[in-house]
Amino acid sequence: MPNSCHVYLLQDGQHQVLTIPDEFALSSTEVLLRKEGNRLIIEPISSGSLLSLLATLEDIPENFPNIDEGLLPLDDIVL
């Protein structure tokens, strides 16, 4: 599969339309479009939500250390 190809932008009213060739087709119906300099970056958005992804993860059994231990309370700090 090539990693680039020449395509044309079409004008549809006030919008530009980009036709994506089959070899670059995305499996998602929603994408994130962002501009970096002169480049347009198109990224597929997965149909699942972050909450549904987190629900599939196992609980973390470890106890995390108290990183605030030994620090002064925020109210006692004077600059």
Task: Compile the SSE list and pairings.
Blueprint: E1 9-12, E2 15-18, E3 31-36, E4 39-44, H1 50-55
Antiparallel strand pairs: 1-2, 3-4
Question: What report would you give on this structure?
Answer:
Strand 1 and strand 2 form a beta hairpin. This protein has one helix and four strands; from the N terminus they run E-E-E-E-H. With 79 residues, the protein is mainly β. The strands form two sheets. A two-stranded antiparallel sheet has the order 1-2. It has a domain at 22-47. The model has no long low-confidence stretch (mean pLDDT 86). It has one helix at 50-55, and strands at 9-12, 15-18, 31-36, 39-44.
Widest sheet: strand order? 1-2
- CA radius of gyration is 24 Å
The portion of residues forming beta strands comes to 25-35%
The termini sit apart by: 60 Å
User: How do the SSEs run, as a string of H and E?
Assistant: EEEEH
Characterize the overall form: elongated
Structural class by helix and strand composition = mainly beta
Mean pLDDT over the full residue set: 86
Question: What's this entry about, in short?
Answer:
Helix content is 8%, strand content 25%. It is mainly β and 79 residues long. A hairpin with a 2-residue loop joins strand 1 and strand 2.
Which key phrases capture this entry?
79 residues; mainly beta; two-stranded antiparallel sheet; 1 helix; 4 strands; 8% helix; 25% strand
